[in-house]
Amino acid sequence: MNADQIRESVRIRYGALAEGAGASCCAPGGAAKPSCCGDASSGPDAEELARRMGYGAADLSAAGQGANLGLGCGNPQAIAEMRPGEVVVDLGSGAGFDCFLAARQVGEAGRVIGVDMTHGMLAKARDNAGKLGLAHVEFRLGEIEHLPIADNTADVIISNCVINLSPDKPAVLREAFRILKAGGRLAVSDVVMLKPLPPELAARPELYAGCIGAAAAMDSLSSWLAEAGFTDIRIVPRPQSRDLIREWAPDLGIEDSVTAATIQARKRNA
Questions:
Q1: Residue 20 has pLDDT above 90, yes or no
Q2: How far apart (Å, rounded) are the C-alpha atoms in residues 84 and 110?
């Protein structure tokens, strides 16, 4: 697939998830249809998945109903160190879960901007924000390789298992650097490659859109971050994610090739 076909595949998949087709990054087929991950109805629900990613009961309560879809591979909130009054941008904001948690941390003096390329997710997120009465949270349509945000806007950029889906990850990181203020920081949970997938799995498009097939090696991510201008780069694998990733595509052995990781970096002060 070329870049446009990859984006369209991802857009279709996550549009289905926005419409309630299953609570798994790699299971958009719905409760009645097996996907690359098997039958979504037999797996853990969204709340259990979020807890396994590192979110607590207070997080689930604060985000309200409908924001947590059980997507992601970690908890960027735990590493972002958000402070009152800051501007936070969420790359691939989905139904708004991490945005709403960020809004709680930055307070009404701060601002949260979610960016997503899926109309269904944006509609769901805006509806959820309205129910929570969060006037300092907004959602914008856009691709993370071409962010609809001005230079030097954000204090913090977060993302949860989305950058791996991009066919042009260096462009995403350049855009992240562009919109960060001097001294701003990147705090991401994502999937990284430990070793190449077997060729027969690497060629499966459903694994690409399921957060697996296009994961980048840690060395590549580190190089792209440095080339974009970031400093203080830290990429830390999370071995405890192995069981969660195994469930994304049972019996394929993907947990031997990919793992969740935290990715942190900073834009140097001017």
A1: no
A2: 6
> Which pLDDT score is estimated for 212?
72
Q: Are strands 216-217 and 137-141 parallel, antiparallel or unpaired?
A: unpaired
* CA distance to 127, 159, 266, per residue, from 96 (Å): 10, 11, 24
Give the number of other CB atoms < 10 A from CB of residue 149.
19
Report H helices in the chain.
Answer: 3-18, 46-53, 57-62, 77-80, 97-106, 119-132, 169-179, 199-202, 205-209, 218-228, 242-248
Closest among 186, 168, 179, 191 to 140, alpha carbons compared: 179
Instruction: Report pLDDT for 268.
Output: 94
Alpha carbon of residue 15 to chain centroid: 15
Burial-class residue 217 by CB neighbours within 10 Å (0-12, 13-18, 19+): middle
Q: What CATH architecture is 3-267? A: 3-Layer(aba) Sandwich (3.40)
Domain boundaries in the chain?
3-267
* pLDDT value of residue 246: 86
pTM for the model = 0.88
Beta pairing partners, 93: none
- Rounded distance, CA 17 to CA 38, Å? 15
